[in-house]
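Hello K.,

You asked for the raw outputs rather than the summary table, so here they are, unedited. I folded two proteins back to back in the same session to keep the settings identical. This is the first:
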Amino acid sequence: MEGLKVEWRRTDTKALVHLYQDGESRAEVQQQDYHDRAHFFTDQIQHGNFSLLLENLRAEDEGKYACKVYRNQRQVFSINRNLELRLVDTVFNLQMFLVVCPNILMFLAFVLWGVSEGSLFESASCSALYFLRPLMLLWAA
C-alpha cells in the first residue's frame, strides 16, 4: 500500500516499538529492547488490521502503547492501549491456595478428631489455630 506508515510507540517512554513503512517492517529504527520480539501482521493490513504481536513479555513491557496510522504523511487513525501483565495475579492466587488449603484441611481434621475422640476443648483449640493462621498471614502480608 503506497504511502502507508504504521508506528507503535510506548506513550510513557516515547520508545518506538515497531514501524511499518514503504511496504515493510523497519526493524533497524525500532528500540533495541523490541528487536525480534515485536511483530506486525503485514498480511492483514489490507483488512485494516494493524495489530502488534509482542513476544517474550517482560515486566518492563507493562505500560501504555499507541498505534498511529499515516496515509501520505497525514494521520488517519490513532488508538491507545494499555498492557497489563496478569502473571503476578496468577502467582499470588497459587500462593494463597497453597497457604489456605492445607490450613483448612487441618482445621477440618482437628474438628473430626475432636468429635470422634470426644475431647472437644483440645480439638477446638487446635482447629482455631489452623483457622486463624491464614488470616494472620494475610494480615501480615
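The second followed immediately with the same parameters:
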Amino acid sequence: KGEGHVEGEKVENPDTGLYYDEYLRQVIDVLETDKHFREKLQTADIEEIKSGKLSRELDLVSHHVRTRLDELKRQELARLRMLIKAKMDSVQDTGIDHQALLKQFEHLNHQNPDTFEPKDLDMLIKAVSVKYK
C-alpha cells in the first residue's frame, strides 16, 4: 500500500483464458518496446483500438520490433500447426470439424505466414474484443 509502480518492473497480468494468451502477451510486450507505439497505445481509447486505427501505427515501429513480431508470428503458426496435426491424428477415422480447426487461426492472418502486418494486429485485437464483449 502506498508503493508506486517502479519503472521497468514487470506487472503480472491475469490469464485471459484465451488459447493464444501467451502469443497475445508476447506481441504486446514487443510492441511496448517501441516508444512511439507505446505512447499511441497509452493515449488510444478503446474505440480507436477496436476500429483498427491503432493497427495502422504498426507501419511506424522500428525494424527490430517488426523483425521480432515476424518471428513471434512464425512461432505461433508452428504451434497451431502442431496442435492441429495432433488433433487430426487423434480423430483419424472420425469426422473432422474443419471449421473448428480454422477458428484456431482467427487471431492472425495465416495467408501471410512470414510477416506480422497491420492486418495481424487488427485480427488479434478483434479476436480479443469478441471474447470480451
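DSSP finds six helices and no strands in the chain.

Happy to rerun anything if the numbers look odd on your end.

Regards,
P.
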